[in-house]
Structure formats: C-alpha cells, structure tokens
C-alpha cells in the first residue's frame, strides 16, 4: 500500500446475514445499543451515555468492539521513572520481548511526531497514540507534553492517550485537560499500603527517596487524588492493575470498588508477567503469575456495573499496530524520515475518515447479524467456551497455522462474550508444519470445545479432535459473534434432538 494511496478494505461476502437486515442496517453511533447487550461483553459500550460512547468508540483499549478495527501506537519518549515496581525492569534494544517497559529505541518528541505521521501513512486503522513509557509518562512531563503538542498539530483527529503510575498525576491534570488528552490510564495495584509495600520498594517524591509503608501510603494517596481530579475534569480514566497471586489478588476486589466509586471508567486486571530472564525482583524471587482461570475468576468477581477490560495485550512501550500485533520494527528512526517526508497529512486525515465510515457500516452490520443470530437461540442455561483465529475486523479470517493467539469467547443464550486471548506458538512455519507446537497449542486451548478458523489441515484437526476440540471451518471469513451464536444455536438444538 502506498503512503498516499490508502485503500479502504472491502468486506468479503457473508453467508449468514439476513439480506433484509444487512441491507437496512444504518450506521449507529456507538455501534451497539441493544445490539451488543450480552454481546461483546467486556469493554462493550452498551448502556453508556452517547457522549461517552463517542469518546470510546474508536479507542482499541477502551472498547473491546473497537479493538477488532482500530490500532494504537506508543511513542517511547519517557525513559525515566519516579518509582520502582517489583515487576519492572526497563530494558532497551530487545526487539523480541513483548511486555510493558521494553523498547527498541527512545525517541525525542520531534522524532515521535514524525513517527506518528509515518505510521499513520501505512496503517489507516491508527486511531490513538499513547505515551506509555518505557518509564512513566509524567515523570518526564516536558517530553510527554511536547510530544502531544506536536502530534495534535500534525494529526488533530488522532486521539491522545497517556499511562502513568499516578505519583505525579495531581500536578499535571490541568495540562492534560488543556492538551485534549481524553484518556488516561493509572496503574493502581493496591489501596492498602501494607500490600503496596510488597510491590513497591521505593518511590521518589518531593526530592526524597521514600521506602516501605511511607512510600506505599504516599503513592496510594496521590493515585486516588489524581483519579478524582481527572474525573472532575471529565477525562476518561482507565485503571490498570497487575494481579500478583498471594500479594494483591484478593485485594484487587477492594481496589475495584475504590476506583469504581471514584468514577474510573474501565478496570483492566492484567496477569503478572514474571520470568527470571527479565531480571525483575519478582522474576528473580520466583513470584508466579496467575493462570488464565485464576485471572478470569478475578475478572468475573469484579465485573458488575463497571466495565472490565479483558482484551489487553500488555504492550511494549513502543508497540505499533492492532492489539495483538506489533509492527514497531517496520518504523525505525532510520526509515521514518523517508516515510514521513512523502506524507500529505491532509490526505491521510481524509483516508482515516473514510476508514472510520467503513468501520461504522461494518460494525452496524455485525451487530445486526449478531442480533439476528441470537433470535435463533432457545432458552438454555448452557455455556460454551470456544476459540477463534482472527486477523481483526471482527471476522474469523485466519488460518489455524498462522495464529499466534486465539481469541476466547463464552457463548450462552445471552450472546457471545469475549473473555480473553491465549497466546500460542505458530503451527505453520513458512510452509512446513511444526508438530512440536501442537501440544502447547492444545494446552493453551484447554477448556475450549471448538476452535473457529478460516482453514485448517488434516493433521492438526485430528490432534485437536483427540483432545476433544472440534475444528470449525464452516464460518470462514464470517463475523465472529454472529457465527458463534449461530453455531451454538445449532449445537444446542442438535443436542436436544439427540436427547429426545
Ligand atoms: Fe496505549 Fe494504554 Fe492508551 Fe491503550 S495500551 S496507553 S490505553 S493506547 Fe491497551 Fe496495551 Fe493493554 Fe495498555 S492493550 S497495555 S491497555
Ligand atoms: Fe516500571 Fe512503570 Fe513501575 Fe516505573 S511505574 S517501575 S516504568 S512498571
């Protein structure tokens, strides 16, 4: 795709969408309304006031539905940090490691703005640019805010996003608001300093290094104050929490209550990533992360009248692309000058607007299709967990062997709810099949009764069947939600017929 010649993708043909519905589906702001109730589930914007829906509609992190269609990028302009977390070790030049805090190169604000133009020229799905490290965005306020100013000038339609540990937040709320940064994430792992002291060995505050309970107490107070100030300023706040078994896992239910009562919009509970090779305190001391089942149980316990994010990919601080993919290596300081030089910024803005209109129609169509499929499901208390291979756009459009992760949905009479993703090793390695990858893939799909794919070979299909997982190709390139509900309705009906 040429930088100047962005192409809005055409939707492939659909099989299971009633013509009357597809033909009449008008784009709906928010893209959900009743259509997504019980649908996308976590992060769904159903039930939100219209003005809030408009603000999350194309943000891939704040809306689970949007993450099928829109991309984010991080610009690594904030190297320093004002606290130490026991799960963090900021490394550079590590292109293969995907976890927060890791970047391949740090950027100046000027280079960051150029990189945004270069990325936007190649990725029309780009809707948001965030500063998320590799240190703390607000421990480097001048670099962070200068970056936002430059991006705002260069690409005013792209949303600005910021992630912080919250220590310096109360000092910067006014500037955040003035710059039009509408989405702020605060990482809050505790509200009890006794718990905090096990996570944070020190903070640097008011010109002094502080340790232990004092450090955790100050951090907690500043986080709560910053959250309240942002909410009062009408900035949307997401809270990220790292689930650390044995330290804050149970406590996160209280954290959820505390942030919800202060007006946080979304809670993202993420698993601790812990590996001795990362050189973090928790990695070196053998602190384990939670299992997918433990994480889901905690997320379920916290899911009430507050939105829960379940589609986080714990991105690098220089991640680029759709969530779950990272195209950062395509944009280095060596080539962004060349790409950005040929960019017509006004034309790029038009291309993004055209892409948004396309997605608007596509989402309305998907929601209508899911509603129509739901009408087939008779009352049943059954639920099924299934996995989906997708490259994005809300469709089952990836070959089994090309999947590096599967999206997991829970299907019930209420609809198909996205509940997480499972990472796997590639089965197809450039033309040959890697049989050694299969046991790991089967293990990752534990609990799933079926895997929906665009295509799958005979051997992996057999291996999956032996593990009790059906490979389903019948819905190749169809919408995910509508297909899963349709399949569920048919399998429930079949089971009822057999039982009769
Ligand atoms: Fe980046 Fe974070 Fe903004 Fe998203 S990420 S600053 S809110 S644009 Fe998103 Fe990445 Fe999870 Fe963060 S998937 S780690 S939640
Ligand atoms: Fe690392 Fe972020 Fe914690 Fe700072 S706040 S130590 S950058 S994880």
Structural overview:
This protein has 500 residues and is an alpha/beta fold. The protein has 2 domains: 50-338, Aldolase class I (TIM Barrel); 376-499, Dinitrogenase iron-molybdenum cofactor biosynthesis domain (Nucleotidyltransferase, domain 5, 2-Layer Sandwich). It has helices at 19-24, 50-56, 109-122, 141-154, 173-178, 193-196, 212-232, 251-261, 281-285, 292-302, 336-341, 345-374, 438-444, 458-466, 480-499, and strands at 71-74, 83-84, 126-131, 159-164, 183-187, 202-205, 208-211, 236-243, 266-271, 307-309, 320-322, 384-388, 405-412, 415-423, 428-429, 432-433, 450-452, 470-472. Helix 14 (458-466) links the parallel strand 17 and strand 18 (470-472). The longest helix has 30 residues, at 345-374. The chain is globular, with a radius of gyration of 22 Å. The N and C termini lie far apart (56 Å).
